[in-house]
Amino acid sequence: MMYYIVFAIWYLFSLLPFWVLYLFSDFIYLILYKMLGYRVKVVRKNLTESFPEKSEKELREIESKFYHRLCDYFVELLKSMTMSDKEIRKRMVFKGTEIIEQCVADEQSIALYLGHTFNWEWVTSLPFRISDKMHCGQLYHALENPIIDKILLRQRQRWGAECIALVDILRKTIEYKKKNQLTIIGYIGDQVPHWNNIHHWCWFLNHDTPVMTGTERIAIKNHQAILYLELTQKKRGHYEAEFKLITRKPEQLKEFEATDIYYQMLEANIRRQPELWLWSHNRWKRTREEFNRRFKVVDGKVIQILED
């Protein structure tokens, strides 16, 4: 019963025109940022450490813009439930799709790197823009709230892109390969890896950063091309997503080289429009010093030597 109540409320809000939703977003901004200071300490710390060259005035300007974009993200997520195909085509423009067309011609699947740059939710409209020979999907992390999780799962698949759970991703990519089904699967790779999944560190936004390397390993195993999707905002509620090639032959790169290139491209993307990245995420909560104190690596496996 609660699912249907939440769904109905979400649906009704999504029917509101964008101009009304953005007024609502401005109101949320005042509550979330100005009154409650939602995660301001985390945001401020991340920005200060990532951009030591910027003045306090510049950092506060980025901070304020970020909270505006975050609130816009919430209402755009609501709107996604009932947006028409015509509307999403107008508001999410894809460039560089000729790279995908070449992969289709060469019968090569694609591993697509993304970051938490707004509005990554609308990337699920990609099936409208590329050949139907290429099956679209995205890695999906289930939410703790089962009601919101169910709604978002439905919503993220409404334009034809499949949500694939993390635990199923390797099995699914192998299955698609055996069926000769071309795929382009999106991986939001800028998340914090679990301690026992840390195999590589890179320098990212002025931080020694532990990174996830599973995307690279899956691409190599399945001989997939690796692309990066650069997201930029052209104006409020209008985004541009450009595909950029990392490699067509990941097996020829050095270990973790594709991952390093991804983080370099992501950082360049962030520096162009820093307010679009998810600064409220505690991205650097794991340090190399703590890792070295608690773990050791034996034959490529992370072994815990100290309890939490």
Automatic annotation (TrEMBL):
Transmembrane regions: 6-32
Highest taxon listed in the record's lineage: Bacteria
This protein's record includes keyword Transmembrane: yes
GO biological process: glycolipid biosynthetic process
Keyword Transmembrane helix in annotation: yes
GO MF annotation terms: acyltransferase activity
GO cellular component, one term: plasma membrane
UniProt entry keywords in alphabetical sequence: Acyltransferase, Cell inner membrane, Cell membrane, Membrane, Transferase, Transmembrane, Transmembrane helix
Main subcellular location of this protein, as a coarse class: membrane
Cellular compartments annotated: Cell inner membrane
Stated name of the protein: KDO2-lipid IV(A) lauroyltransferase
Origin species: Xylanibacter ruminicola (Prevotella ruminicola)
